[in-house]
């Protein structure tokens, strides 16, 4: 698994390296030289490619850029350097000063040898355009220091980079981080960021590169580690490889693989209802290998459940005595998918979670279950505290998307989106248990370890996909013969994402191939089963 670091950790790694007596400017030179090697490697299919346009900012990322310009020129490339702001330009008549920053040293070296640069000005873009023909565009505007919405000047420069790179069909190489992407969180403001083909990530892999907006900007990420840091504890891990499943024991029966109770699929006040949510969860739990499934849903949907999933048993979700009785014999209760948000549903939620706790049954709380949990956090804090205490000793998984997480933390969605890494930690601190914060580059917090999911795609952005994931979670958790990793939340997230990827890849058997547009939750269970088989081979 690739280790992911937050910005402070990256600065700490660098600091520790300098504290051992290593020179910071030497590190910048190393960084730039290795970036140049990767750029040359990237264009080796087209040996005539020798024109670069390097865009530099005023921090150390810009320093990398000045040195990249210099080294490429020394190697015989034709290089134009575009400076974001005249403010960062040095007076070259001044002598080299011992207190010069690394970025200034870099600029001096580049300009001493060949003063071929242009200052970007929004109003004079057309005049600049004639100098910008190049095969490779290098983005050294901002690195990990970029931490807020861009200034107008930064936004214009980023926009111009993307515009001219597209016009010249240039390869776009981002140094460290595509400028405009906040390395800490993956956030991009109003779509203003460099759309890189390649990101050359310096020192350590930044956690924000693999989640949220960043996914549309990073292109292919290559690490340039520069500094040994295997002893520093990362903030998160990049999840991409699921655990293989062991074969079942011959001498086993359905009871060996657990009984899952799906509680959801309700219908309120004669509305059309949400029976599909429970059906999707149930069929996914079955596909993930659960031994037995019961669906506690509104009785109006029992016919539909049995038609689409004859393997399942049904029960009226409003039959509290019946459902509570079943909870006692189940291994896992997944509650909330289409449960509804009215007062009755809230009462059912609290009663069933309470029963699960009394009988030490594993829990998955999703969708409307999370809605009620947020309400109860204010209304019945003792219940929420009891759940938190229960989650310390038993398996409880909470699986919100950003909207649900915002409600649980009594805040706005925008504040979750600003820093999903912080949000998932806050959720776990407040409610206990293991957490999944869904969305592009989903975050998983399991046993206090943070993961970023590298599989899955925008095809999963359709109704019912979360219900499928709850089903997979329940199915895995129910199987007592599996080990902890095989039953884990991250395994469920991986299987779900891998199935989405398989369905949308072009190099797979036509039987499975669908495409991102039009991918449906009901397409998933069969492919989840296929992924599990493939993993086991
Ligand atoms: N020796 C080393 O340490 C090594 C470092 N290395 C390289 O250094 C990079 C980190 O450098 P860095 O810390 O100087 O930050 P960087 O990203 O260049 O820019 C910061 C500037 O941008 C500004 N700014 C921020 N947000 C903004 C916004 N929204 N809109 C507009 N402006 C904004 C910010 O302003 P301020 O916050 O100061 O007001 C500041 O002036 C790292 O990614 C790697 O490439 C490598 O060479 C390896 C060795
Ligand atoms: N753009 C995306 N890239 C990767 N995964 C996604 C994307 N959009 C949604 N997903 C995944 O699809 C699932 C959707 O779940 P959810 O929002 O709960 O849907 P629903 O409530 O309709 O069932 C989550 O696992 C989420 O991470
Ligand atoms: K950059």
From TrEMBL:
Domain of life: Bacteria
Reactions catalysed according to its record: (6R)-NADHX = (6S)-NADHX; (6S)-NADPHX + ADP = AMP + phosphate + NADPH + H(+); (6S)-NADHX + ADP = AMP + phosphate + NADH + H(+); (6R)-NADPHX = (6S)-NADPHX
Span of domain YjeF C-terminal: 237-535
PROSITE patterns the record matches: YJEF_C_3 (PS51383), YJEF_N (PS51385)
Binding positions ((6S)-NADPHX): 277, 338, 401, 467
Segments forming domain YjeF N-terminal: 10-234
UniProt keyword annotations, A-Z: ATP-binding, Isomerase, Lyase, Metal-binding, Multifunctional enzyme, NAD, NADP, Nucleotide-binding, Potassium
EC category name: lyase
Function: Catalyzes the dehydration of the S-form of NAD(P)HX at the expense of ADP, which is converted to AMP. Together with NAD(P)HX epimerase, which catalyzes the epimerization of the S- and R-forms, the enzyme allows the repair of both epimers of NAD(P)HX, a damaged form of NAD(P)H that is a result of enzymatic or heat-dependent hydration. Bifunctional enzyme that catalyzes the epimerization of the S- and R-forms of NAD(P)HX and the dehydration of the S-form of NAD(P)HX at the expense of ADP, which is converted to AMP. This allows the repair of both epimers of NAD(P)HX, a damaged form of NAD(P)H that is a result of enzymatic or heat-dependent hydration.
Family in the record: Belongs to the NnrD/CARKD family.
Protein name: ADP-dependent (S)-NAD(P)H-hydrate dehydratase
Native source organism of the sequence: Psychrobacter aestuarii
């Amino acid at each position: 698994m690739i280790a992911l670091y937050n910005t402070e950790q990256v600065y700490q790694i660098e600091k520790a390296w300098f504290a051992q007596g290593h020179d910071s400017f030497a590190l910048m030179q190393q960084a730039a030289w290795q970036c140049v090697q990767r750029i040359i490697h990237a264009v080796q299919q087209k040996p005539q490619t020798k024109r670069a346009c390097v865009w530099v900012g005023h921090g150390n990322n810009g320093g990398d850029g000045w040195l990249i310009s210099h080294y490429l020129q020394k190697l015989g490339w034709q290089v134009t350097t575009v400076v974001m702001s005249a403010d960062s330009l040095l007076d070259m008549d001044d002598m080299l000063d011992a207190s010069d920053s690394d970025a200034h040293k870099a600029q001096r070296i580049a300009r001493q040898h060949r003063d071929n640069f242009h200052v970007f000005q929004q109003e004079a873009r057309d005049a600049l355009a004639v100098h910008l023909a190049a095969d490779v565009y290098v983005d050294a505007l901002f690195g990990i220091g970029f931490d807020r919405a861009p200034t107008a000047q930064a936004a214009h420069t980023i926009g111009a980079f993307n515009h001219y790179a597209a016009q010249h069909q240039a390869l776009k190489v981002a140094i460290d981080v595509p400028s405009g992407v906040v390395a800490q969180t993956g956030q991009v403001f109003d779509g203003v960021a460099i759309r890189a083909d390649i990101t050359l990530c310096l020192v350590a892999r930044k956690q924000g590169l693999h989640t949220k907006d960043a996914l549309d900007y990073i292109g292919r990420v290559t690490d340039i580690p520069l500094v040994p840091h295997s002893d520093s504890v990362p903030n998160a891990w990049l999840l991409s490889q699921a655990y293989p499943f062991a074969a079942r024991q011959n001498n086993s029966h359905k009871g060996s693989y657990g009984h899952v109770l799906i509680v959801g699929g309700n219908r309120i006040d004669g509305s059309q209802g949400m029976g599909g949510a429970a059906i999707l969860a149930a069929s996914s739990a079955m596909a993930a290998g659960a031994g037995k499934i019961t669906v506690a849903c509104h009785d109006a949907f029992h016919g539909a459940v049995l038609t689409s999933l004859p393997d399942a048993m049904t029960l009226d979700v409003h039959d509290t005595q019946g459902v509570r009785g079943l909870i006692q014999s189940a291994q896992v209760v997944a509650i909330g998918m289409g449960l509804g948000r009215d007062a009755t549903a809230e009462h059912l939620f609290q009663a069933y979670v309470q029963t699960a706790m009394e009988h030490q049954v594993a829990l998955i709380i999703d969708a409307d279950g999370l809605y009620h949990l947020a309400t109860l956090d204010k209304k019945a804090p003792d219940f929420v505290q009891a759940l938190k205490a229960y989650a310390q000793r038993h398996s409880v998984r909470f699986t919100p998307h950003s909207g649900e997480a915002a409600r649980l933390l009594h805040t706005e969605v925008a504040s979750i989106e600003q820093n999903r890494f912080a949000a998932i930690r806050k959720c776990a601190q407040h409610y206990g248990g293991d957490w999944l914060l869904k969305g592009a580059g989903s975050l998983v917090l399991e046993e206090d370890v943070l993961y970023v999911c590298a599989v899955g795609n925008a095809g999963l952005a359709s109704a019912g996909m979360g219900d499928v994931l709850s089903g997979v979670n329940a199915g895995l958790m129910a199987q007592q013969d599996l080990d902890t990793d095989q039953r884990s939340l991250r395994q469920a997230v991986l299987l779900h994402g891998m199935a989405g990827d398989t369905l949308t890849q072009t190099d797979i058997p036509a039987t499975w191939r669908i495409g991102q547009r039009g991918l449906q939750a009901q397409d998933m269970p069969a492919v989840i089963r296929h992924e599990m088989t493939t993993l086991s081979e």
